[in-house]
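Issue 218. Parser rejects a valid record. Input:
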Amino acid sequence: MPWCFPCQQLSGEWRTLSKLLKGIAHVAQVDCTVQSQLCQKQGVYSYPTIRLYPPN
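Output the parser choked on:
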């Protein structure tokens, strides 16, 4: 979320976490102003929201 200050603060941490969890979990950022259907489908209603998914 470009306007979400806490989301912006986590940006570097996302990259680090993504490297640490490679092969264990996917780490991604989604801009819910662009991907509103995805966010609604996943039940994302506040920002930042952190979810972990298995690699498959």
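Fixed in the parser; the record now loads. The mean pLDDT is 86.
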